[in-house]
Amino acid sequence: MRAPLNTLHVAVLMGGLSSEREVSLSSGRGCADALEGQVAKVTRVDAGRDLAQVLTALKPDVVFNALHGEWGEDGCVQGILETLRIPYTHSGVLASALAMDKDKSKAVLRAAGVVVPGGGLFDRKAVAADHVIAPPYVIKPNAEGSSVGVYVIQPGDAPCAIVGDDSWTYGDLVMVEPFIAGKELAVTVLGEASGPRALTVTDITPTKGFYDYEAKYAPGGSKHVLPAELPAHVFDKALRQSELAHTAMGCRGVSRSDFRYDDVNDVLVLLEVNTQPGMTPTSLSPEQAAYVGMAYRDLVRWMVEDASCPR
């Protein structure tokens, strides 16, 4: 049994080494501020390669992992925390690594009965030279989040030359999927003791272009409608598919599933599962929690109370 919340020393990990560093700093600041006054001590840690040494010296009771992207979200930091035997928030090593690999996670989700996009992994040079599938399609790095490095190729567009450029830093294999027209949806799931609980469905409309990094995190970058105005069967299916995905991936704590809904053909497709959703002022998960009556401070507290370290 863990000590009472108001006696705990919580280290909040933020920043980190990935392309999502600035988002993580924003998430981390918000979570650390929310914990002030709820726990005995909050230490803000800009996580670097010396993280193990820093945490060994700090000796926190719990780590709140507010890192996003490579290293912080892909199982690496989770492995450090398990080696140090420190309880931490969000998913464990396997679920974190799996969710960051789009190709492998799609295979697991498909086997569990979740509807996912077609397409697959292709050599980036081939993708830059010619259309590897018929447009419209989407090009994504296989192991990045927050729509970093995502390109939408429409009919009539040339192949995406930048993917083959020497400046490309997201790996030699890229995910290419058919573009699914329709609504952008998101569902947050809390991994409660009684089972995963989906909160609600948000319909996201970018103010310009598609739902890229800027649309996700810039003030006014997108409009959120919650609950989403959907046919009842689609709304319920999004909730159930999110819970199924949370379980199939082995997630714990908070996860968020992102969907596209083709409202012309009535097809709902899960694009990916985020094991460490953003906690910034414009983030979807805190907004959905507030909708169901869980204030930001309450959500952050719940995440600390849910923290664990598998033995």
UniProtKB/TrEMBL annotation:
Q: Which UniProt keywords apply?
A: ATP-binding, Cell shape, Cell wall biogenesis/degradation, Cytoplasm, Ligase, Magnesium, Manganese, Metal-binding, Nucleotide-binding, Peptidoglycan synthesis
Q: Does the keyword tRNA processing apply?
A: no
Pathway per its UniProt entry is: Cell wall biogenesis; peptidoglycan biosynthesis
What's any GO biological process attached to this entry?
regulation of cell shape
What is the active site of this protein?
E20, S146, S283
This enzyme catalyses: 2 D-alanine + ATP = D-alanyl-D-alanine + ADP + phosphate + H(+)
Q: Name one GO cellular component term.
A: cytoplasm
Residues covered by the ATP-grasp domain: 106-305
Q: How is the cofactor bound?
A: Binds 2 magnesium or manganese ions per subunit.
Note the superkingdom of the native organism: Bacteria
- Keyword Cytoplasm carried by entry: yes
Q: Which GO terms describe its molecular function?
A: ATP binding; D-alanine-D-alanine ligase activity; metal ion binding
State the compartments where it is located: Cytoplasm
* Entry's EC annotation: 6.3.2.4
Residues noted as binding Mg(2+) 1 in the record, renumbered to the chain: D258, E272
Instruction: Identify the InterPro entries for this entry.
Output: ATP-grasp, ATP_grasp_subdomain_1, D-Ala_lig_Van_CS, D_ala_D_ala, Dala_Dala_lig_C, Dala_Dala_lig_N, PreATP-grasp_dom_sf
Required co-factor(s) are: Mn(2+); Mg(2+)
Pfam families given in the database record: Dala_Dala_lig_C, Dala_Dala_lig_N
The UniProt record gives the binding positions of Mg(2+) 2 as E272, N274
Provide the family line.
Answer: Belongs to the D-alanine--D-alanine ligase family.
**Tell me, what does this protein do in biology?**
Cell wall formation.
What name does the UniProt record give this protein? D-alanine--D-alanine ligase
Organism of derivation: Brevundimonas bullata
This protein's gene is called ddl
